[in-house]
Amino acid sequence: MDAPQGRHTGSWLLPLLKLRIWLAEFAQHNELQTTLVWAGFVGFLAGTSSVGFRKLTDGLHWLLTRHPPGYVETFSHLPWWQRLATPCFGGMLAGLTLYLGARLNRRKSSTDYMEAIVLGSGNISARSSFVKCASAAFTISSGGSIGREGPLVQLAAVLASVAGRWGGMGTARLRLLVACGAAGGIASAYNAPISGALFVAEIILGTLAMESFGPLVFSSVIATLTVQQFLGKNPLYEISQPLVNLHTNWEILPHLLLGLVAGLVAPWFLRSLRWSERAFAATALPPYARLALGGLIVGALSIAHPEVVGNGYSVVNQLLQGGMLWQTVLVILLLKLFATEATFGSGAVGGVFTPTLFAGASIGYIFGTGVLALWPGGTPPVLSVFTLVGMGAFLAATTHAPIMAIIMLYEMTRDYDIILPLMLACVIAHYTSTAFEPASIYSESLKRKGAAYVRQQLNALRVADLMKKNPVAVGEVSRFEEIAENFLTNRFNYLYVVGTDRMFKGAISLHDVKNYLNTPELASIIIARDIVREQFPTVAPEESLTDALNVFSRHDGERLPVMSNFEDRTLVGSISKTDVILALAEQSRPLSDTQKAAVEADPVDAHVTAMTELPASENGQHHEL
What CATH number should be reported for the domain whose range is 31-231? Predict the structure, then answer.
């Protein structure tokens, strides 16, 4: 609104505006820095939600069993009937949660955060996500053979989506923020910040460009620091004895063979998960009955070996300390795989990332026992080395992300000496697995929309797809006080000026108002028309993002005004340089191996779903990986 003639600019505005200009000149603020701050906030949300979810599952576990956390230990002390009943009852509660949640929320909404990152607008349904996480809590707390990393990533991603929408972010930055949430969720689950960032960069985004990788790293670090503040800084797996001490280069050969074994076994593990899903779908049971059946199978297996319950973390620690018979480990491995297939196939929400580590550890332990028996006169590495290398190799073989697997195993142990055999085994396992099974554990997650379709969508983007409508603007006769208030309440360095019917007249630079800060009397009579820059670059909605970037290259601002067309020059929106850069980076990056496998498997009906989710099965449920 126009101020009355002769009114002096408020005395409080000028000092604040001086500070605002000083910050703009010396802090060199831009939207990429703002995105970094938001990434840190999302990392904090990921860390706190991770701690909260762990406390929730611990509390539910106590309510169901009257025992403290420690699933294998708990089931070891339960009578046979309670071992049978607890996972069954927990599965029924998990299924009821999904069933009732779907009936109460009939809107078609997506909880798939890979879709939100790669294809969608970054919007994730909060209500549906919380229903899935509640279902996962019942499955996990009752001993289901599945991990908690899935719901941790889901929680972090949905909180990032909500925060980004609340902050008014554009599509490109909102997708990046959801990716930061996913990275923070992985980092908080495994106390592994590098792996969290690499997981999202290598598997989902397929790029290490700093425009995206920098925020991923920042979010992962903040998430890890937050979890460490509550749960301590110890590595996930404690190794009590020295690991690798290669006396000759020949001692690396067993690790090469271990990578080969892991690469040969991994495809059958992936196929067994898909077979189990189809088998449960064929029963046509409602979700609560199907998940109860999956829990009943786990409970029956736990009567023979309680080690099959939970995500397998405590058993892996036992393997790392040695002393178990390889025959016992083999039996537990087979039963654990069956239990994981039953939990996963029934439609339970949760992660199979940690059970995958369990399978790799068991394979490495059994293989290492054989090596020690055949090589009595040599000096092979200790058994725990084969256990850890097996974990990394099997993870690389199932995810087709060897770099992430190498870094994650290093972060979980913090022992650099293992890096040489680990790198060799992971690479061999990756190439062996892809030779027999091009699709990774995530390729099924990339079939609904199609990686090729995603690329077509990105290449077709125009300015109109990324612009924010109705940007802040002032009228030609707006006085200095209104101009100052707009600069103080918004982060931009250029304020648009419009005439009647929002016809664009130009822009006022933040630095143009400096001359009036020391003369309040002059400022009180200045109007927007007196200081507007009439020659100001603009773009049109139908222009390509490349055209917009060319205009940005000749302009020092972070945003450009968008005209309805260049004839009537009606201001309809504004577009951010950061959004353009992020979108163009997505266009130019090559498809990741996982995306290529998805397109090759089904180039027409490929789909994009959650980063740690398999697609909706025939029974309509989703699975977190």
Answer: 1.10.3080.10
